[in-house]
């Protein structure tokens, strides 16, 4: 039960299958095809993953559904010893990108998160995301939702979705808009495309964090640049292995990136989809690289430094990290 921080967690991607099945049954939506015989999410490749993800998300149709989802996800996080998490929220899935609808979803999510925190659970903050394969115009609507609701809970803006669609620079307007609103910036890069995508993200979007970024390892000059600039990678080893990027943890570059001075952190991305949890990630890294409690605590501090929350929150989380150490 090492205290943990998680920076890369898609809220819908963390939805327990039982919750999704229950909502589908209440709404008479047949999504039985997305589950295997054990009731787990079923897909074979990244395109299939995105399709299952969107089918599962389609049953989440109201602010109340998202409040329920938030509570379920935070209960799971609490079980993993998480003291602080940032979750990706997409206005496209919460009201179709409409600002007024988004405000209703946000209020429900924020209230659920505040209740969990008041009961001693993890503190949660939101990073609004645009969906890359929905295109730049819809991304602008997501960015405007982010800018309009930036504050204590909404602390960042990012981009998820299919990295092979378009270019990072196509979304520069949205990231500029979010930056002007004072939001922290991150984007998925260096997962399905190589090192150039990471360079583009840094240059064209001005992000300080990269979602995944693991394929930087294919360009050691870029690895040095990431280390020198203090760019933080939100690394999700189990996700990379489940989607076939690497055969197993021993072949995963997280340890080499860390050894070369890159700021790495550990997250689960979409845990029930990849049959993982943060505790399982820690156990796997311990087994593969002999990482010990000191190493995990060091990475916890890296994550806290890179978190998009305010300094008061950081001070509070630091106390939790140190008091439970
Ligand atoms: Zn992700």
Question: Can you offer a commentary on this structure?
Answer:
With 325 residues, the chain is an alpha/beta fold. It has a single domain, classed as TIM Barrel. It is built from 13 helices and 8 strands. It has helices at 17-26, 46-57, 63-79, 99-118, 136-149, 172-180, 195-205, 220-229, 237-242, 254-259, 278-289, 293-306, 311-323, and strands at 4-10, 82-89, 123-131, 154-160, 184-189, 209-212, 232-235, 263-266. The chain binds zinc ion (ZN). Zinc ion (ZN) is lined by residues 8, 10, 160, 188, 211, 269.
State which percent range the strand residues make up: 15-25%
Q: Helices and strands: which structural class?
A: alpha/beta
Question: What is the radius of gyration?
Answer: 18 Å
Provide mean pLDDT, rounded: 96
- N-to-C span: 10 Å
How would you briefly describe this protein structure?
The chain is an alpha/beta fold and 325 residues long. It has helices spanning 17-26, 46-57, 63-79, 99-118, 136-149, 172-180, 195-205, 220-229, 237-242, 254-259, 278-289, 293-306, 311-323; strands at 4-10, 82-89, 123-131, 154-160, 184-189, 209-212, 232-235, 263-266.
What topology emerges from the helices and strands here?
Layout: E1 4-10, H1 17-26, H2 46-57, H3 63-79, E2 82-89, H4 99-118, E3 123-131, H5 136-149, E4 154-160, H6 172-180, E5 184-189, H7 195-205, E6 209-212, H8 220-229, E7 232-235, H9 237-242, H10 254-259, E8 263-266, H11 278-289, H12 293-306, H13 311-323
Parallel strand pairs: 1-2, 2-3, 3-4, 4-5, 5-6, 6-7, 7-8
Helix pairs in contact: 3-4, 5-6, 12-13
Zinc ion binds at residues 8, 10, 160, 188, 211, 269.
EC number: 3.5.4.4
Domain Adenosine deaminase: 3-322
Enzyme class: hydrolase
């Amino acid at each position: 039960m090492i205290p943990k921080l998680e920076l890369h967690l898609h809220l819908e991607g963390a939805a327990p299958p039982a919750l999704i099945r229950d909502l589908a049954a209440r709404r008479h939506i047949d999504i039985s095809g997305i589950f295997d015989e054990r009731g787990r999410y079923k897909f074979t490749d990244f395109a299939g993953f995105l399709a299952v993800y969107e089918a599962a998300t389609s049953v989440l149709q109201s602010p109340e559904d998202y409040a329920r989802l938030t509570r379920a996800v935070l209960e799971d996080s609490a079980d993993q010893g998480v003291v602080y998490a940032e979750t990706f929220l997409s206005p496209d899935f919460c009201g179709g990108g409409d600002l007024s609808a988004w405000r209703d979803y946000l209020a429900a999510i924020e209230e659920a998160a505040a209740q969990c925190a008041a009961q001693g659970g993890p503190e949660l903050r939101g990073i609004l995301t645009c969906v890359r394969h929905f295109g730049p115009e819809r991304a602008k609507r997501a960015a405007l939702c982010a800018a309009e609701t930036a504050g204590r809970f909404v602390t960042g803006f990012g981009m998820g979705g299919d990295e092979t669609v378009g270019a990072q620079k196509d979304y520069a307007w949205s990231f500029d808009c979010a930056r002007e609103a004072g939001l922290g910036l991150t984007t998925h890069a260096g997962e399905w495309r190589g090192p150039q995508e990471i360079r583009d993200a840094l240059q064209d979007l001005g992000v300080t964090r990269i979602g995944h970024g693991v394929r930087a390892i294919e360009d050691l000059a870029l690895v040095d640049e990431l280390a020198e600039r203090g760019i933080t990678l939100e690394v999700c080893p189990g996700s990379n292995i489940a989607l076939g990027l690497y055969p197993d943890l021993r072949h995963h570059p997280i340890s080499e990136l860390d050894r070369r001075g890159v700021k790495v952190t550990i997250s689960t991305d979409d845990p029930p989809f990849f049959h993982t949890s943060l505790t399982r990630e820690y156990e796997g890294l311990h087994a593969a690289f002999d990482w010990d409690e000191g190493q995990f605590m060091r990475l916890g501090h890296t994550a806290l430094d890179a978190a998009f929350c305010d300094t008061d929150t950081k001070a509070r989380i630091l106390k939790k990290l140190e008091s439970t150490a």
